[in-house]
Input
Amino acid sequence: MENFIKAVESEWEPEEGFFWKIRQGNFEKAEAHRALSKLTAVPRLTDQLIPARLVSVLWYVPLFIEWQVDRVRANRGDIAEYTTAIAKFTAEIERILGVP
Output
């Protein structure tokens, strides 16, 4: 699990992380794909105990990326692609953590 945690954490890092970049309004489809591939590598965890740190780097993703729509739009990002990315990230988090 530690490798999954580090991989997802890296996408929150200043300057290079996908989530940091969209916070600045900079959305690139290739970077979204890179970050999403790190999530798709995480196995489904609904039938086992989940490390708290993994939960903390995952649960916030759907909320956070949804909140950045206006920043991406203001920076003339491709909103159609961004909306697709939001749906894909949300689906992966649901797959990993399950839904209520």
